[in-house]
Amino acid sequence: MTPLTTSDFQAARAIAHPYIHRTPILTSAALSEITGANILLKAELFQRTGSYKIRGPLNVLSKMSAEEKSRGIICSSAGNHAQGVAYAARVHNIPATVVMSVNAPAAKVNATRGYGATVIQHGEIWDDAYAHSRQIQEEQGLTYIHPFDDPRLIAGQGGVGLEIAEDVPNVDYVIVPIGGGGLISGVAMAIKAAHPNAKVIGIESSGAPAMSRSVSEGKRVVLENVTSVVDGLVVRQVGVNNLWVVQNYVDDIVLVDDTEIFDSVVWLMERCKLVAEGAAAATVAALRTGRLTIPKGKTAVCVLSGGNLKLEQLQGLKWN
Fold first, then answer.
1. Molecular function terms in GO for this entry (predicted)?
2. pTM of the predicted protein model
3. Mean pLDDT for the chain?
4. I need a surface site. Which of 18, 46, 120, 125 has the fewest CB within 10 A?
5. By the 8 A CB rule, do 108 and 79 touch?
6. Which domains does the chain possess?
């Protein structure tokens, strides 16, 4: 894809501005003490719909033709993209169909319906829902809204990085969760445009390392098995555009396992009074476990991507 510029991210944010919050940058004395670095949290869990995923669809739908809108839209999602698309569709008065996996959190399913979308549940993970949604799209002639592999969507998600660059001008590291790659694609290009020397680090689940495997092998791989239950981090194959961006703009990818992630969900509740979903807590898990080390005195921002937590996933977890 053609690299996006600061003006692309600014234009996308201007489109989304009436409908989103500029989420705060929070300090974390506890994480700073653990790491010896200055750790900040970009709290997208306070965003409308409960995650950053509202940003991209607002930009995509604003750039669709009248003919595309008239056909109605469809997407597939583990949950957060569903809510973002449903909300954006309501803003634009476009009928929306969303295909979600059968194990998508009930709160995300109900919220998506609450925004007015028709929800169909199919398959175990996002890739299954994606295949089914493409079939429905073909049958009904709907317009497809991809959850990560679309430059217009990436421009919208990049608003997160744009705001970090503006609010933390001395940023040295930005730590971002990776599922399909839409968020880190936008954040990485936005950060590097403003602060070329800042490092962007991606965090993946060790049970679904589609991006790190693809970077290692120099091509998109399809994971035969995924073992993670962190819905925001689980895809079998990342996007074409997303892999290109990560190859060119992301400095490293770190893997954490589900136990470490959910332990950090609880830790964020206890120590920071924040309810973060698993994908969001993965960035904190990388620091708490020492899998990612930030040099002493440097400033790092963890992107807390969302707060739509499936509480039952914490049952049986043991923590100190």
1. threonine deaminase activity
2. 0.95
3. 95
4. 18
5. yes
6. 6-52+151-314 (3.40.50.1100), 54-144 (3.40.50.1100)
